[in-house]
Write a structure and sequence with these properties.
The chain folds into two domains: about 40 residues; about 350 residues, Alpha/Beta hydrolase fold, catalytic domain (Rossmann fold). It is globular. By secondary structure, the protein is an alpha/beta fold. α8 crosses α9. The mean pLDDT is about 95. The chain contains 14 helices and ten strands. It starts with 13 loop residues before the first helix and ends with a helix. The protein has a ten-stranded mixed sheet with strand order 1-2-3-5-4-6-7-8-10-9, sandwiched between helices.
Length: about 450
């Protein structure tokens, strides 16, 4: 008789071994998927979003080594290859640059076909009499209707026209300062209890008290009043007034900043020759785009604006054209996504946009641990833009492949740069650098 095979007995440890095997398979699949989207260096840089501190070796792996800038376009070379020799030619190049960014990155920026009106809704003394608080309704109208936004403005109470710093916020005007008189933005959607908790919660980002004490007015507008940061809702505000499918969120935010400039340039309390715009992160992208387009803006401040802001797309070691379009397709025109895997084919890069700000002042700032925004790429973008400023006879920063050390700003009469210790944010230390730079060069 054939021996009957003994039945294999069930072992209890098969269950945890099977679970471990399944977890390893899932982790391997996730890593393979992520690797298909981003190189390892960029994936490691993404840990900065979770404030994971990297070792010096890991940081060097992310940021070190040569980057491929062999196809980086020059600000001083026209599309037909003509090398620019004077500022008159550069003004033509500037228009060309803006058209290329409209077509390939940000989408069209409405320049006509609308009317803007203003209404001062509230005014009063603030900050123990040191400031005048003014709240202004900005209404943009087309034949399709009207969309409004609420601007919060603090002016030094000294009777002298003041230089002003204008920026969009992402947390509501009421978060910019603990002041019960600040009205809630039109499009802000939360209940009353949350509003009270949020009042003044982002005051450090706006530095209003110190700015007023130093003679600067500060103005801010909730970005959602122009375009909610949502792929489903961004078309519900100012974008809905225009029959342009490629008018997207970053363009709407830049458009909104320019409408804020419309008001400030006409306010007798403002020194219209000294209007600066500032933006952090995605709103830093909008600030750079607005500043390049609007020559009434005398100074542009980019704070951690990263990819599609101040950092070069070519050779980027943080967020890439591919990943940013996957995550935020409502920010940019549709054509931009076509360059997600081939940035070298882009007819532009961010150095051209920074160059288009010349001869007005430009300040680019980064944070040392904010690797997703690629601080080295922002520095490289500034270095690759400065020949446009030099064309106007302006002093520029010295050539260097290395950023200045953390918390050590580098300034000259046309541009400034610093990399702050810490993470992705706009802090009091950033404002100290900005205001000190403005004291020295802007005024």
């Amino acid at each position: 008789m054939k021996e009957m095979k003994a039945k294999r007995r069930f072992r209890w440890y098969w269950i945890p071994l099977g679970l471990i095997g399944l977890i390893l398979i899932l982790i391997g699949g996730l890593l393979a998927f992520l690797r298909s989207m981003l190189p390892w260096q960029n994936l490691l840089a993404a840990t900065s979003n979770m404030k994971i501190q990297l070792s010096d070796g890991q940081r060097e792996y992310v940021t070190g080594g040569k980057r491929d800038y062999s196809t980086l376009p020059s600000p001083l070379t026209l599309e037909d290859g003509t090398v620019i020799a004077d500022t008159k030619q550069f003004e033509a190049r500037r228009e060309q640059i803006l058209e290329l960014f409209e077509e390939n990155v940000y989408g069209p920026l409405p320049k006509s076909g609308f009317e803007t009106s203003f209404e001062v809704l509230e005014e009063g003394e603030a900050l123990d009499g040191a400031a005048i608080r003014r709240q202004i309704r900005i209404a943009v109208s087309t034949e399709k209707g009207t969309s409004d936004a609420l601007m919060l403005l603090y002016l030094p109470n000294n009777g002298v026209p003041s230089p002003v710093i204008l920026g969009l916020n992402s947390s509501g005007n009421h978060a910019a300062l603990d002041d019960e008189n600040i009205m809630v933005p039109y499009s802000y959607d939360t209940d009353g209890a949350d509003i009270q908790k949020e009042r003044g919660s982002k005051a450090y980002r706006w530095n209003i008290r110190d700015s007023i004490a130093r003679g600067y007015a500060v103005a801010t507008i909730y970005s959602g009043d122009f375009a909610p940061d949502s792929g489903d809702a961004y078309r519900t505000r100012v974008v809905s007034l225009f029959d342009e499918e490629e008018f997207k969120a970053v363009g709407a935010w830049a458009f909104g900043l320019m409408r804020g400039v419309d008001y400030l340039a006409a306010d007798a309390g403002i020194d219209a020759a000294h209007i600066a715009v500032v933006g952090h992160s995605r709103l830093g992208k909008a600030a750079v785009w607005a500043g390049a387009n609007d020559t009434r803006i005398g100074m542009v401040i980019s704070n951690d604006s990263g990819n599609s802001g101040a950092s070069l797309s070519r050779g980027n070691r943080g967020e890439t054209v591919y990943s940013i379009n996957k995550a935020f397709p409502h920010w940019f025109c549709s054509k931009y996504a076509d360059y997600g895997k081939n940035e070298n084919e882009l007819p532009v890069d961010q150095n051209l946009l920074l160059a288009a700000i010349a001869p007005r002042l430009l300040y680019v700032a980064s944070a040392r641990d904010d690797l997703w925004a690629d601080p080295q790429g922002a520095w490289n973008g500034l270095m690759a833009a400065k020949e446009a400023f030099a064309l106007y006879g302006l002093p520029v920063l010295p050539d260097s492949e290395e950023q200045p050390p953390a918390d050590t700003p580098l300034w000259c009469e046309s541009m400034g740069y610093h990399v702050r210790s810490g993470w992705h944010d706009m802090e009091a230390a950033d404002w100290e650098f900005y205001l000190s730079y403005m004291d020295r060069y802007f005024l």
